[in-house]
């Protein structure tokens, strides 16, 4: 009896993350988020959302691109080992309750508050909206609060740039529960990954598809080799005999992250610093390491690509499961708001 009571009391953590389906996933995604999801699926109730509606906020003219990448992103998820028995995958636009919630949340946030959101501010600059900011884009933090609260997620693994979204979500949760006098919505905490970003192959701070400096999980061996052999290194390391810099040299950053042989990497770093170790040698080793990492991922991806129907079924089942949870949340929300007519 006591045991049962304990079980009922125990609240399991609910994790929600998502990606905008605008391109294939790359090593930066792996290091910054996918790797953690592999761990979280064994610890928590995990939802992974394909944020197609959010992707449309800055791709509304290219819905076919978003559509195509929904399935590509799913291949990437499954290829790295996210397991549909442990992780619930769903498509954002297929959960109408998210959009309904967002409508009610719009009342709880001021225009000025949104204008102050540092992520929105930065993205407006970055995307060159100028004074023509689409409203849908402007309010996406509110929509994101709906993504999170619709499944009552309390742990949100995100990069630093998404912290203002979590803050905004918690403000909405607090306002909602206070105004409608019921503890319906659940507050959430961000989980910031240990390594949050990987530099690009050009040495820029962040690997990104848009910057054209990414190694994709789906890159073939040949493409990988070309990318690695052309990587930025220490620009002052001209002759193999010159002493080279390891800090800020992405070739070594990648080795630190991906090489299973720590001793070898440390030896190579010492040798490189001393002089006498050429870039080609280091890059050849990095290619070997990355190719060994990506080969099983590519193989699994190919298997799923040959069985697209199975992948769509996984998404459909996950979406169905999420719908049940979302309907329950909406019921509680509408009860609290006195929107329960019949
Ligand atoms: N904004 C996130 C990104 O650009 C994606 C996202 C949408 C998300 N909804 C979310 C992340 C909810 C965490 C929780 O990467």
Briefly characterize the structure.
The chain is mainly α and 342 residues long.
Describe what this molecule looks like in 3D:
By secondary structure, the chain is mostly helical. Helix content is 56%, strand content 7%. Helix 10 links the parallel strand 4 and strand 5. Helix 5 runs parallel beside helix 15. It starts with a helix and ends in a 6-residue tail after the last helix. Tryptophan binds next to strand 1 and helix 9. The site of tryptophan has 13 residues, from strand 1 and helix 9.
Strand content: 5-15%
What oligomeric assembly is this protein in?
Answer: single chain
What would you call the shape?
elongated
Gyration radius over CA: 23 Å
Question: What's the SSE blueprint?
Answer:
Blueprint: H1 2-9, E1 14-19, H2 27-43, E2 45-50, H3 52-56, H4 63-80, E3 87-91, H5 96-106, H6 111-115, H7 118-126, H8 135-138, H9 140-150, E4 155-157, H10 163-179, E5 189-191, H11 221-229, H12 250-258, H13 262-274, H14 279-305, H15 308-336
Parallel strand pairs: 1-2, 2-3, 4-5
Helix pairs in contact: 4-14, 5-9, 5-15, 9-10, 11-14, 12-14
The structure holds tryptophan.
Provide keyphrases for this structure.
single chain, 342 residues, mainly alpha, Rossmann fold, Tyrosyl-Transfer RNA Synthetase, 2 domains, two-stranded parallel sheet, 15 helices, elongated, disordered N terminus, binds tryptophan
């Amino acid at each position: 009896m006591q045991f049962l009571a304990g079980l009922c009391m125990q609240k399991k953590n609910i994790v929600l993350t998502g990606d905008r389906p605008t391109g294939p996933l790359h090593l930066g995604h792996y290091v910054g988020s996918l790797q953690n999801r592999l761990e979280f699926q064994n610890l928590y109730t995990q939802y992974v959302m394909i944020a197609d509606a959010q992707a449309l906020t800055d791709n509304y003219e290219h819905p076919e691109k978003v559509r195509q990448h929904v399935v590509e992103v799913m291949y990437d998820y499954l290829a790295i080992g996210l397991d549909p028995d442990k992780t619930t995958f769903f498509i954002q636009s297929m959960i109408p309750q998210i959009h309904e919630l967002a409508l009610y949340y719009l009342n709880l946030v001021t225009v000025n508050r949104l204008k102050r959101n540092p992520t929105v501010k930065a993205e407006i600059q970055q995307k060159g909206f100028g004074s023509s900011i689409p409203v849908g884009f402007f309010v996406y933090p509110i929509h994101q609060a709906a993504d999170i609260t619709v499944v009552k997620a309390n742990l949100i693994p995100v990069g630093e740039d998404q912290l203002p979204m979590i803050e905004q979500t918690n403000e909405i949760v607090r306002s909602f529960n206070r105004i409608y006098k019921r503890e319906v919505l659940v507050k959430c905490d961000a989980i910031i990954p240990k390594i949050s970003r990987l530099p690009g192959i050009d040495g820029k701070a962040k690997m990104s598809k848009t910057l054209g400096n990414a190694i994709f999980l789906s890159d073939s061996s040949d493409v990988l080799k070309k990318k690695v052999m052309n990587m930025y290194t220490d620009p002052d390391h001209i002759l193999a005999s010159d002493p080279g810099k390891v800090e800020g040299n992405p070739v070594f950053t990648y080795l630190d992250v991906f090489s299973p042989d720590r001793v070898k990497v440390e030896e190579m770093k010492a040798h490189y610093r001393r002089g006498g170790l050429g870039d080609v040698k280091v890059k050849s080793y990095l290619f070997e390491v990355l190719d060994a990492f990506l080969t099983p991922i590519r193989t699994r991806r190919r298997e799923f690509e040959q069985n697209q129907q199975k992948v769509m079924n996984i998404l459909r089942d996950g979406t169905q499961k999420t719908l049940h949870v979302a309907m329950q949340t909406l019921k509680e929300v509408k009860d609290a708001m006195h929107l329960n007519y019949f």
